[in-house]
Specification:
By secondary structure, the chain is α+β, with helices and mostly antiparallel strands. It has four domains: 1-39; 52-178, FAS1 domain (Roll), CATH 2.30.180; 196-320, FAS1 domain (Roll), CATH 2.30.180; 331-469, FAS1 domain, CATH 2.30.180.10. The protein has 16 helices and 21 strands. The chain has helices at residues 2-38, 52-57, 63-69, 73-80, 92-102, 112-120, 196-199, 205-213, 216-222, 239-244, 253-261, 331-340, 347-355, 375-380, 386-390, 394-401; strands at 85-90, 123-124, 138-140, 146-152, 155-158, 161-170, 173-178, 232-237, 264-265, 277-283, 286-293, 296-299, 303-312, 315-320, 368-373, 422-424, 430-434, 439-441, 450-451, 459-461, 464-469. The protein has a seven-stranded mixed β-sheet with strand order 2-1-7-6-5-4-3. The radius of gyration is 36 Å and the shape is elongated. The N and C termini lie far apart (144 Å). The relative contact order is 0.07.
Length: 477
């Protein structure tokens, strides 16, 4: 009986002890965590079997950094494998701030080579804990440029970025969180200027490549306030704009210099300051011709301004949908070049100009606006070959040809034409424009009228502009 009583007492004590232990367990765990935190003031304990990439992926405030890194599988692989690295990791807020400063919306806007350069500027190829950093210390990053450590009291700066959390230990190095994105020294002069909207945007990689391939003075010019000191206006073509202009391979440096300067004005001209109607605009390499009409703003008839007033510290940028190419041939030379091309075109127009002794006229200053008939157009008008042109009366040919040239000495681009417009030609007879059907009716009231060829409008010459038509314009005899 005594033995049974002792067993009962022992069992009850065990039950009571177990209940009290379960009750006290949360308090015990809290105390243990507190002791652990006291032993590590830098933050939570992170198992050192996690690599740098895994730590970034598990840290919500580094999601932007993870997004950026994911574009480069080789960088992810490097920072996931064995090694010793120090990563200064910008927070999401840091990425948001730098994108705003660069005039971009998302990380996807940045060109891949630019973003990679920025990311590599945050990595040191050795392990450096906070205790290993000192004031004035210079650290070489894996992108080849240095960062500088500044320490004042408990504040640690890497360049201008403050370390907000340090010594996050990883299996292959250490991570320090920073509150700003580090911009490599080579990029700093670009930030805030008119170069920034294109340099930091993947839609303008061709333009950036052209600037870098041109004479070094071009980049210096773009970063300056212009020759007059009044700022610059850049008409910036997108990658697609270069393709639209037929520029798929970059030409030599001298040609690039000429092309790029043709996109620059030596003044800061906002969209509100562009002249209305038609105007000749002086660039750093000759003039282009602006049409500021209800349908939009166009340059040389074929190029449209699609976005305006991206401002920088040294001027303004307007985006265009076709690169501008300064003319290098006069009208007579363009006609001759077409006639010698493969396939040929304008062979009969050239023969007619020669027969009427007008070639020299169209090598003159002008400007001339010419509606140029194709060879098929001459065939339909009763001139089957060059022999028929050579057999024609020169005066008759001259009368026909001058009915294809606008009388006013002016550039008339397709964007300057209006529906129902009556234009006096060089022979003092009129033609009528039908924009709805994109055609020109001659003085005889031809039916059907001559159709403008959409892909061959606004061919710019040094002394005028050519629009190709599919029918000869006939004057009243």
């Amino acid at each position: 009986m005594v033995l049974e009583t002792l067993n009962t007492i022992e069992m009850n004590i065990g039950i009571i002890f177990k209940q009290r232990f379960i009750y006290l367990l949360p308090w015990v765990m809290t105390a243990l965590v507190a002791v652990a935190c006291d032993n590590d003031d830098e933050g939570p304990i992170i198992p050192v079997n996690e690599d740098i990439v895994s730590i970034a992926q598990g840290t919500p405030e580094l999601s932007s950094l993870v997004t950026a890194l994911s574009k480069y599988p080789d960088l992810v692989s490097t920072l996931s494998n064995t090694g010793t690295f120090t990563v200064f990791a910008p927070t999401n807020q840091a990425f948001t701030a730098v994108l705003a400063a660069l005039g971009q919306t998302t990380i996807d806007d940045l060109p891949e080579d630019v973003l990679r350069d920025i990311l590599e500027y945050h990595v040191i190829a050795s392990e450096l804990f906070a205790s290993g950093l000192s004031d004035g210390q210079t650290l070489a990053t894996v992108n080849g440029s240095d960062v500088v450590v500044s320490i004042t009291g408990n504040t640690v700066l890497i360049n201008d970025a403050q370390v907000t959390s340090s010594d996050i230990d990883a299996s292959n190095g250490v991570v320090h969180l920073i509150n700003a994105v580090l911009v490599p020294p080579s990029m700093l002069p670009v930030v805030g200027t008119i170069v920034a909207p294109v340099f930091f945007n993947q839609d303008f990689t061709t333009l950036v490549a052209a600037v870098l391939a041109a004479d070094g003075d071009i980049l210096s010019l773009l970063l300056s306030n212009g020759p007059s000191g009044n700022g610059l206006t850049l008409f910036a073509p997108t990658n697609e704009a270069f393709e639209a202009a037929g520029i798929t391979d970059l030409p030599d440096a001298a040609t690039l210099n000429a092309v790029l300067q043709y996109h620059l004005l030596d003044a800061t001209v906002t969209s509100g300051e562009l002249p209305s109607g038609s105007a000749e605009i002086q660039t750093l390499n000759g003039n282009f011709y602006l049409s500021n009409v209800n349908d939009g703003v166009f340059i040389n008839g074929a190029t449209q301004v699609t976005e305006v007033d991206l401002t920088g510290s040294n001027g303004v940028v307007h985006i265009i949908d076709q690169a501008l190419v300064p003319p290098s041939q006069n009208i007579a030379e363009i006609v001759s070049a077409f006639a010698a091309a493969d396939p040929t075109e304008f062979t009969l127009l050239l023969a007619a100009l020669q027969r009427a002794e007008l070639v020299e006229t169209f090598t003159g200053d002008g400007p001339f606006t010419v509606f140029a008939p194709t060879d098929a157009a001459f065939n339909s008008a009763g001139f089957p070959d060059q022999a028929s042109i050579e057999a024609a009366d020169p005066q008759v040919l001259a009368g026909i040809l001058t009915h294809h040239v606008v009388n006013a000495s002016a550039y008339v681009f397709s964007t300057d034409l209006s529906d129902g417009q009556v234009i006096q030609m060089l022979n003092d007879q009129n033609v009528t424009v039908d924009l709805q059907n994109l055609s020109i009716q001659d003085a005889t009231g031809s039916n059907p009228p001559a159709a403008l060829v959409p892909d061959l409008l606004n061919i710019l010459a040094t002394n005028g502009v050519i629009h190709v038509i599919d029918q000869v314009l006939l004057p009243v005899q």
